[in-house]
Structure formats: C-alpha cells, structure tokens
Amino acid sequence: MAHEPGKIRNVAVVGHRGTGKTSLVEAMLFQAGATNRLGTIDAGSTVSDWDEDEQRRQMSLSGSLAHSEWQDRKINLIDTPGDAGFIGDAIAALRVVEGALFVVSGVMGVEVQTGRLWQRAEQGKLSRVVFVNMLDRERADFLRVLGALQEQLSEHCVAVHLPIGSEHELTGIVDLLHMCAYESPEGQKEGKAVEIPAELQAQVEEYRTKLLDAVVETDEALMERYLEGEELGVEEVAHALKDAVTRGEVFPVACGVATKNLGTTALLDLLVEGVPSPQKKGAPITIDGADMAAFVFKTIADPFAGRITVFRVLAGTVKADSTLVNVREHGKERVGQVLELQGKEHKPTNELGPGDIGAVAKLKDTRTGDLLLDAERDVELPEIGFPEPVMSFAVTPKAKGDEEKMASGLRRLNEEDPTIQMRRDPQTGEELLAGLSQIHVEVAVERLKRRFGVEVDLHQPRVPYLETIRKEARARHRYKKQTGGRGQFGDCDIVIEPLPEREGYEFVDKIVGGVIPQSYRPAVDKGIQEAMQHGELAGAPVQGVRVKLVDGQHHNVDSSEMAFKIAGSMAFKDAYAKADPVLLEPIMELEITVPDDSVGAVNGDLNSRRGRLLGMEPRGGMTTIKAEVPMAEILTYSQSLTSLTGGRGDYAMHFVRYEEVPAHISQRIVDDSKKEKEAATA
Ligand SMILES: Nc1nc2c(ncn2[C@@H]2O[C@H](COP(=O)(O)OP(=O)(O)O)[C@@H](O)[C@H]2O)c(=O)[nH]1
Ligand SMILES: [Mg+2]
C-alpha cells in the first residue's frame, strides 16, 4: 500500500564535504530501527556510501536514498555529496523535497558548499533544520558556529539544543524546547535522561529566552501573552515552533555527534514535526493537467540490477507492472517492479503514492531530469538547474579504435550525471571531457574503465584561439600553370578589412565588366574560406574579416573553378600577412568563494594568471571574488584553488568574450605552433 501523503517527510541531507552527513543518516536509520547496527565510514559499512568508489575514497560521490519510520511517519532521507565536483546530486535532491537538513562541522562552521546549497534551499523555499555535528572534536565550538550560521546563512537560525561539556569531554545535550537533558548514548540507542547541569543554568536560560523570542515573533497571539509575562506551556511553544519551521520562518539549530548517535532522537522529532508533508506543501514541481507524474532526479548504475531510475512522485500513484510515457522521448516505458531503496538494497513494493520517493529498474531511455507521465501530454520539462562544468580535459582512448566505445560510455555517464559532459571542440578538433572538478572527471574516467572497459588518457586541452586582422590590406594573386595541353589560369585581386565585432565573414563581389566571369567568383570565395580555417599566425580559425573581390583576369580556355579557388586562397594569405593579424583568446569570468584568510593568496595568484579583478564581496568570514582571466591561464585552476585554500575554496566560471592576446604571449604561441607544424611534417 502507498503511504498517505500526509504521513511522508522528504528530507535532503546536505552540506559541505566531510561534515558527517553520511554518518548522521546512518545514526538516524539506526535510531529509527531501520537498521540494527551503526555502520561507519572507516569500515565502509554505511547504508548510503555503498558504492565501491565511495568506500575506497571514504566520501560520498553520489546521492543515496534511504527511509525510516518515525512517529508513524515515513521519512525519506536523501544523503548527498558535499564535494564541489559532485554537488549536482545535492542540487537535484533539493529540487524534490520539502525539507533540507543542513549538516555543518562544529569545528569548521559554515563552509563554501554550505552557503551555496543554502541559496538553493532558499530558492525552493524549503524548510530547513541545521545540525551542528562533530562537537566531540578538538576545537569544536557550538556557540561560535551558531554565530556563523546567523551571520552567514540567516539571522533566523536559532539554537534548540546546547551541548553539555565540549570536545572530548562532551557528555550530552540539553533540549531547550522541552527543558530536559540527556547523556551521550555511546553507540546505544537512547541517551539516558539526566538533570540539566547546574553550571549550565544561566546559559540555558539565556538561549531558551532567545528561542522563545524567535518563536513568539512568528505567532501574534502567543507574542501578546508572552509580553504580558505569561508563562507559555511547552506544548504550545513546540507547536508554534513547528509551524514556524514549516513556513520557513525559523531555522532550528540542533547539535550532537553523529558517530555516537548523540542528538538523533531530537533531530528525528524535529524533522517529523517541522518539515511539511507533501500534502501540506504541495508538489515542488507542478505539472498541469497530469493525473500521474513522476520526476527523475537521479539515475544509478547498479552493478547487479542495471540502471535504476530514482524519482519523486509529483501526482498520482506509480504502480508496478504499468506503462508510463517519457515526455522528452515521447516513448513508452515499461515499469516492472516499483522499488523502495535503502542504500544499495531494493525492496519491491506494489506502488508509490503522491509525494513519495522511490525507484524503478531497467527503463530504456529515461535519464536524470526526465518526466514520466501516465499519458502523452504537451508539458514543459522541469529544470534541475545543474551547475556548468568548470574543468575540461582533452580525452583520447588509450587503444586505437576505442573512440566509439569511449563516446558511448561517456554518453551513458552523462545520462546518469548531467554535470559530466562531453563535446568536440570545433576549433581544436579535440574531444573534451568536462566536469565540476578534477576528482569529478577522474572518477568518470575510472567508471569508464570499470563499467565500459575503455581506458582513456586525459590531457590539458588546447585553448580555442582565434585569429583576426586589425587593418585593411590588398593583394593580388595570379595562379598560372602551363603543362602540355590545357593549362590553369586564375587571377584575383582582393581587399580585406576588419569587421567591427571581430566576428563572422563577408564576401563582397565588386567585379565590374566581367573580368572574372560570374561562374568563377564563388570559387574565389570558397578558396578564401578554406584559407581562413587555419590562420597563418598559429593555425587558428580566422574570423571578423570582410573580403572585397575588386579585380582579376580570366582565360577563355585555361580558367577553371579550381584555378580561381587557389588564386583566392593565395591572395588571402598574402593580404592577411599585411593586415596586421592578431591572436584572440577566450576570456572567462570567474566567481571564486574563499575563506577571508586566503583572499590575499588567491588574488596574488589571479594576478600572476593575467587576471583582472572585478570586485570582492566579503560576507561573514567568506569572500566572493569576481575576476576575468584568460582561459589559457586557468585550465588547471581546480587543483590550484584547492591548494591555495586548503580545499575550502570553490569557483564557477563561464565564457565572456574573446580578446587580443598580448604581444609577448602571442609570440610564444606562434613559435610553439610553428614548431608543432614542423614536427608534424618532418
Ligand atoms: N569525531 C567525529 N567524527 C565524525 C562525526 N561525524 C562524522 N565523523 C567522521 O567524519 C568523517 C566524515 O564523515 P562522513 O559521514 O563521511 O561525512 P559527509 O562527507 O558529510 O558524508 C568520517 O571519518 C566520520 O567517521 C562526529 O560527530 N564526530
Ligand atoms: Mg557523505
């Protein structure tokens, strides 16, 4: 039987890499009785990091679905990766849930991806609960992190817990809502209830008042009674808090230690009470007129079961043994079993109702981002809003003849993870493999080898330079050959001049009196366009040129299209050399977010990469730097930023325009290209 939509809670567990999300999901599943042991990252025994690659690297590379029952509710938990390279899965998860559980480290506080994901949750108007984890670690400090949350994420972050003790002397937590305390369960299921320690009384009072202030702020009736000095009951405060969280007006901050299962009971309560059910909130994506709709936000390549399509039911019920329509493909898909996932385990069920999250195996042509309906309908495909790839490599198969296998393997990987992209650069002719970070691309390469049996090499890609001219020039070329019988004769006179936008190509026929017959003039144009494919500076395509064919000559017997094509091409080369040609390079705009203490180093490094600073925006310990940098200088930026910031930086970039390459750099590129050409012909 399908779960009632009012009894479902969908929660994406998100945050920066290494904050303990996977461990926390593990603890919640254990606490709720969905599993009977507490797996660990070190032993590779958690429910959500079930993939071989994840266990080897000891980090989540992929979104993972699990669920548990708590207070008679079904909680669907989507554990997500927090590494910049794999953040696409976290972004996709936030698109299909009502609530987000943000996990932050009690040592590191708010990190780059935390902020980035918070903005996404904001866009989706999601209810949010924050869990400050790892309070048993050295230099962990709950109150400092609370301050950072309020400053960097929202002033409506308010503590509902306080830790008892700190670092390795952390013994338990105080629940500010119910005014009780309990001990760390140390791997047991339940912590033991204890007295609130006397030395914490003052602090507990202070933070309980802050909590009450925040709650009554959202409830007028309660506010009036509170201001009149009335003592508010625990239940009514809890109720008002729940409503405020549901509406996204208050973000409760809980705390604990995932690996010791401390704080999970209270956390599960918060999620069940604060996150609205699908029934209450309504579908995150509405599809007009559809009785049944499911949105695919994740595709898993399962080593045994094949392709697993993970979806959120937006409307209606997905039933086993049914047929669905893929809106993008306009094709029918056969649904066999409907699955509930618990990490790598699949539990067949007969149906999944509205608001629920589950999977089906072995669909033919369905990929991440697709919409499945009960019948063909003219609707728009919803967008997940994946980030654009920032790291590109040229990729070639190690074995000759594997090109097709490589391409089809990469196509499959892209269907599963749309942030892995492959394309051919028309300018350089290279196959490019692009992703969100160096590790992201490396993992794709490992999968290519393991799953599709193709080994590939990655190289730094060539920069897609262009060439253009800076002034007008004129040249005439006569192509003439006399060999035995019929000869060759073509003669043309051209003027070339720069086009204002430095783009495109124009051919203007200015021939008067038929000195070149009409039928040969297109051949001149063709010859010129061929010559422009490889400019004489560095072999890059030439653009931004207007060519005027002004004069010429022909021969009644010897002229041919071929002869005029060659004459056109030679004339262009001569004119080009005199037209002050220049190399153009792609300029990228970067948005880099780094901790304040790395700003100096990052800016210095940008400077050495010919970067131009556009602006800086500091915000609560992190600074966002905007800059323009030539693409040639940032091909391997992902590694550099990692080392400059100790892994705490992040960036996005996109192409803005082409610009002239400065003379001293241009010379080097021209020389390199000459050497390459010589080596190729030697
Ligand atoms: N001391 C301590 N270690 C933790 C805690 N939570 C997680 N860890 C460890 O931190 C590392 C990263 O945890 P993981 O759950 O993979 O983080 P994720 O990347 O956010 O999923 C692992 O080695 C965990 O064992 C905690 O509360 N205390
Ligand atoms: Mg993880």
Explain this structure to me?
It is a single chain. The protein has 682 residues and is an alpha+beta fold. 29% of the residues lie in helices and 31% in strands. The chain has 17 helices and 34 strands. The longest helix is centred in the last third of the chain and has 19 residues, at 663-681. It binds guanosine-5'-diphosphate and magnesium ion. Magnesium ion is lined by residues 21-22, 49, 60, 79.
Secondary structure: elements and pairs:
Elements (H helix, E strand, L loop, with lengths): L7 E7 L6 H11 L20 H6 L6 E7 L2 E7 L7 H8 L4 E7 L6 H12 L3 E7 L8 H11 L4 E3 L1 E4 L7 E4 L4 E4 L9 E2 L6 H16 L3 H8 L6 H13 L4 E5 L8 H11 L3 H4 L11 E10 L3 E10 L2 E2 L2 E5 L4 E5 L2 E5 L2 E5 L1 E2 L4 E5 L9 E3 L17 E7 L5 H14 L4 E4 L6 E5 L2 H15 L3 E4 L6 E4 L3 E9 L6 E11 L6 E5 L11 H12 L12 E9 L7 H18 L2 E15 L3 H10 L3 E8 L2 E9 L6 H9 L4 E11 L2 H19 L1
Parallel strand pairs: 1-3, 1-4, 4-5, 5-11, 6-11, 29-30
Antiparallel strand pairs: 2-3, 7-8, 8-9, 9-10, 12-13, 12-21, 13-20, 14-19, 15-16, 15-21, 17-18, 17-20, 22-24, 22-25, 23-24, 26-31, 27-28, 28-30, 31-33, 31-34, 32-33
Short structural summary:
This protein has 682 residues and is an alpha+beta fold.
| Biggest sheet character | 8 strands, antiparallel
Cα-to-Cα separation, first versus last residue: 74 Å
Structure annotation, total helices: 17
Shape: elongated
Residues in helix, %: 25-40%
The structure class reads: alpha+beta
Number of strands: 34
Q: Order of strands across the widest beta sheet?
A: 16-15-21-12-13-20-17-18
Strand content: 25-35%
Write out the distinct hetero groups bound to the structure. guanosine-5'-diphosphate, magnesium ion
Oligomeric state: single chain
- Average pLDDT figure: 93
Uncertain spans: none
Radius of gyration in whole Å, from Cα? 32 Å
